[in-house]
Amino acid sequence: DGGITQSPKYLFRxxxxxxxxxxxxxxxxxxxxxYRQDPGQGLRLIYYSQIVNDFQKGDIAEGYSVSREKxxxxxxxxxxxxxxxxxxxxxxxxxxREGVMNSGANVLTFGAGSRLTVL
Amino acid sequence: RKEVEQDPGPFNVPEGAxxxxxxxxxxxxxxxxFWYRQxxxxxxxxxxxxxxxxxxxxxxxAQLNRASQYISLLIRDSKLSDSATYLCxxxxxxxxxxxxxxxxxxxxxxx
Lengths: 119, 111
Prior knowledge:
The complex is a heterodimer.
Chain A: E1 4-7, E2 10-13, E3 19-25, E4 31-37, E5 43-51, E6 54-57, E7 64-66, E8 76-78, E9 87-94, E10 108-110, E11 114-118
Parallel strand pairs in A: 2-11
Antiparallel strand pairs in A: 1-3, 3-8, 4-5, 4-9, 5-6, 7-8, 9-10, 9-11
Chain B: E1 4-6, E2 11-14, E3 19-25, E4 31-38, E5 45-50, E6 55-57, E7 60-65, E8 70-75, E9 84-91, E10 99-101, E11 105-110
Parallel strand pairs in B: 2-11
Antiparallel strand pairs in B: 1-3, 3-8, 4-5, 4-9, 6-7, 7-8, 9-10, 9-11
């Protein structure tokens, strides 16, 4: 089945450590996104990538880094420079074309998320 | 003013009730509007796209009012399983496709 896989599902980090969250999709989507969600809040955009080898900062990119070396993969690194990294991280991808299930173009498909806690 | 604003609720309604949520957006040039549903501690999933002429999917009806810059979601005959957070999503105007999320409206349907 096509979809997006995020790992790990839960992650604990000590202060001062960098961690990398994995996001892999087999939907053949060009665009991928990373969002952060805090309790009771909406999703805030960290980084996005419209195509392989290209990515752009979102609204809250400070303290994060990404790469897009392959179409299928868009890992997010949470660096020690991120002051308040405890949050729920969501990766999404998007197709410009109508989906097989007629889900419509430009619909976001999300992974199950990674919950990061800083101890 | 935030780009996308929603009343966080919670909206607490009995089974069978009709409930409506609104979502306002600040940029009149916004394109592409969606409603997503998010269950507790899960990822958001598409509920429905919102078209200019309004659209219906079973018990759910979505409307777009460009003049007043809001979209709405109407749920008829509420079920217990409709309890969730409903996220309004608006695509920012401009070349890059950037979906912007509201903070969500919480719905609790009780017996």
